[in-house]
Design a protein that fits this description.
By secondary structure, this protein is an alpha+beta fold. It has one domain. Helices cover 11% and strands 27% of the residues. A five-stranded mixed β-sheet has the order 2-5-1-3-4. It is globular. The protein starts with 7 loop residues before the first strand and ends in a 19-residue tail after the last strand.
Length: 75
């Protein structure tokens, strides 16, 4: 289901995709080590991307940490 041959995996932007070459954010990706070192290491985490070797899955349970700055946790 999660395509082990992909160069990376990502949370979908918007609707669930479960497909290659769908929109995602750099911050929601997980890459094979070699792919990350070659291309992704110096990318902006908020940069949208869409690649034929990036498998994009569901959009659930993904939020940027920066969206939670300033909130009190556990109060």
């Amino acid at each position: 289901m999660y395509q082990p041959d992909g160069a990376g995996w990502a949370k979908a932007l918007g609707d669930d995709c479960f497909a290659f070459n769908s929109p995602a954010l750099q911050a929601g990706t997980l890459w094979q080590a070699a792919q990350f070192a070659q291309q992704q290491l110096h990318c902006d985490p908020l940069q949208p991307l869409q690649q034929s070797d990036l498998f994009v899955a569901d959009s659930d349970q993904f939020s940027l940490v920066g969206q939670h700055l300033g909130q009190v946790v556990g109060a």
